[in-house]
Amino acid sequence: MTIELGILAWGCVLALVHILVAVRFKTRQYGTQWNVGARDEDLPPPRPIVGRLARAQANFYETFPLYAAAALIVSVAHLNNRWTAIGALIWIGARLVYLPLYALGIRYLRTLAWLVSLVGIAIVIRPALVATF
Length: 133
Hints:
This protein has helices at residues 3-30, 32-36, 48-76, 82-103, 107-131. By secondary structure, the protein is mainly alpha-helical. The longest helix has 29 residues, at 48-76. The protein is elongated.
């Protein structure tokens, strides 16, 4: 298996972490009955941490498919190399630090982590883009 696909598998684990952390804090605010219920009732506004974790999760799901596609393309086309491996590691590293930065409300570093993750994706997909011309 390529490093890019291995990182993709770890990205799936990180997606589950996003879900579990977000629901843990939401359950802490709204209670276990809300969590196991049908969730039909109107809820009071979420606490800041609950909202941040939900937004961090949504942001992850916006960019995760881009990394997944890039990793699959370079792996299937045998375009992976040390740079695509480095790009994959940059992506997962940036995404790992993004969640706590967002949860803690650290603005500029959070944005920097997001930008670094996009650079990682760009490094991974670059060989496929160059190969098309």
